[in-house]
Amino acid sequence: MRKILTALSVASGVLSAVVPLTAQAHMPWLLPNATVATGNKEVVVTVDAAVSEDLFIFERALKLETLRVTGPGGLKLEPQNRSSARNRESFDLNLPQEGSYRISNVSSAVMGSYKLGGETKRFRATPETLDKEIPAGAELTSFVVTSSRQQTFVSREAPGKIDFAPEGEGLELLPLDAVTDLSNGDHSRFRLLLDGKPLADTAVTVRRGGNRYRYKMGEITLKTDARGEFTADWTEPGAYWIGANAGERGMGGTREKPMQRASVSATFEVLPR
């Protein structure tokens, strides 16, 4: 089991092939009811989590697994009032002090196939349930380890200094500029990281929500530079989704040397200037 968990933190050299996220029909996302909250007493934001083809339209609930909330100065917080419905999962987050907060939902999975009695079967599991999914005596024919992260950012009052430390496993977007209190005409710099290290020359998809109500997709593709950095220009108001994938295509791998895949997506709000 430890080998599997270690594989989820594979070095960036192993995850060399980039898989465009636009190939995914369904997009996972976290969406706060406000990205900038104000108040003199208790300040709370509510975050919804879903997966959909039409961005920010509730189609299927996104399972909330390991939630990590980091506040100003590295403050660690716990979500409250978690709830689950068919089309969404939700939670509340109390913002105790001024500044910016990062919210991450992190999950991992193992999938593949095995042969038993001349029959090939597929399996999907978590690292914790893997031993229950593969029968004794089965011959593994493919073994793929995946990690997935959804992010969003909120602030209480002014965003303050942006100084988030990398979470250090899988793919993640590290903001280098303010990513809340945004207006059209602003821009934000990011660094794409894989296991805490910059991931260069990688495709990043930027999509604006609201496709249900217009004909144009509102999508652009960017690439990270040698330092793993890229800049998003917020040209129009709206809710935005940024995503990237890395990993090996197809099915293969063994328990000792699994194939690796990782994905990240993040959501942002841009208001009219």
UniProtKB/TrEMBL annotation:
<protein>
    <submittedName>
        <fullName>DUF4198 domain-containing protein</fullName>
    </submittedName>
</protein>
<dbReference type="Pfam" id="PF10670">
    <property type="entry name" value="DUF4198"/>
</dbReference>
<keyword id="KW-0732">Signal</keyword>
<feature type="signal peptide">
    <location>
        <begin position="1"/>
        <end position="25"/>
    </location>
</feature>
<dbReference type="InterPro" id="IPR019613">
    <property type="entry name" value="DUF4198"/>
</dbReference>
